[in-house]
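Inverse folding, one chain.
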């Protein structure tokens, strides 16, 4: 688009603007569709970015965390636990290692067996919480040493849990981006229908303009400008409402899990501001295509 065409698109032409009715169902439809789709796009973006943060957090936390289970007779459990803790303290890459108390182990079983579970009367294994540092540790080498020195120790580095959880979060992020693409496609389709309706309703006016020497590009410019500005205005209103809605959502918390913390963070608040210009571009392309095709049919 050259400078002159861009200037005409922004400033418009008073005479050409009369070709497109300033009100009516096409105006309301364009404003409503642009606003509603922009509103949904804000939440899809928030979901996508939150899913990305969740995937990164799960990958980081589960990659560093591990559980050591001591399966040993009651009379040997304390000695094997101390031996395992000593080995973990000597292992490069292990930041912390801590044996869980009986109350903590009972709390882990409470969601399945209730809080009244008599954990002390059950032959539960001793659990040790292991956290690696940023460099990590050699899990296979640690297993071999534990197998030789602590026969009842079983190391679980959460690999079988980590991969499905991270993949689920990434799939949710991909789904959010697919939703954004569908929103853009639906917006283009609805604006195309509205533009076609406006062109059909003004068919006689277009014929009169042609008779007095108006070019098709001059006529099309009036429709393109009107629908592009309508889409920009509606999308701006939808983004504003969507960002207010995201702002009012609960903050991230461990108790709420994934259902909280779905808002934007830091520079992420600037991303939704791209939606109105993109909506205007979609409207411009859709209206240009519709006007070119319709004017060609009316020739």
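Residues assigned per position:
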């Amino acid at each position: 688009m050259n400078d002159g065409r861009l200037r005409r698109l922004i400033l418009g032409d008073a005479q050409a603007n009369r070709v497109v009715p300033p009100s009516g169902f096409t105006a309301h439809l364009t404003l409503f569709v642009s606003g509603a789709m922009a509103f949904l796009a804000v939440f899809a973006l928030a979901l996508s970015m939150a899913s990305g943060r969740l995937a990164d957090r799960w990958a980081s936390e589960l990659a560093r965390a591990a559980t050591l289970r001591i399966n040993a007779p009651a009379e040997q459990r304390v000695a094997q636990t101390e031996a395992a803790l000593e080995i973990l303290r000597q292992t490069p890459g292990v930041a912390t290692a801590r044996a869980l108390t009986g109350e903590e182990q009972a709390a882990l079983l409470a969601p399945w067996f209730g809080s009244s579970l008599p954990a002390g009367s059950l032959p539960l294994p001793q659990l040790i919480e292991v956290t690696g540092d940023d460099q990590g540790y050699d899990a296979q080498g640690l297993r071999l040493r534990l197998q030789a020195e602590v026969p009842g120790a079983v190391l679980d580095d959460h690999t079988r849990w980590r991969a499905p959880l991270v993949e689920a979060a990434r799939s949710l992020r991909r789904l959010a981006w697919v939703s954004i693409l569908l929103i853009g496609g639906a917006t283009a389709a609805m604006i195309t229908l509205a533009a076609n309706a406006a062109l059909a309703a003004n068919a006689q006016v277009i014929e009169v303009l042609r008779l007095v020497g108006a070019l098709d590009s001059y006529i099309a410019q009036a429709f393109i400008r009107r629908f592009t500005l309508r889409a920009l205005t509606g999308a701006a209103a939808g983004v504003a409402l969507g960002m207010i809605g995201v702002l009012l959502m609960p903050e991230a918390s461990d108790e709420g899990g994934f259902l909280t913390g779905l808002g934007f963070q830091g520079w992420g608040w600037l991303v939704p501001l791209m939606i109105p210009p993109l909506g205007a571009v979609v409207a411009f392309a859709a209206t240009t295509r519709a006007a070119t095709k319709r004017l060609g049919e009316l020739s």
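Residues 72-151 form one domain. The radius of gyration is 31 Å.
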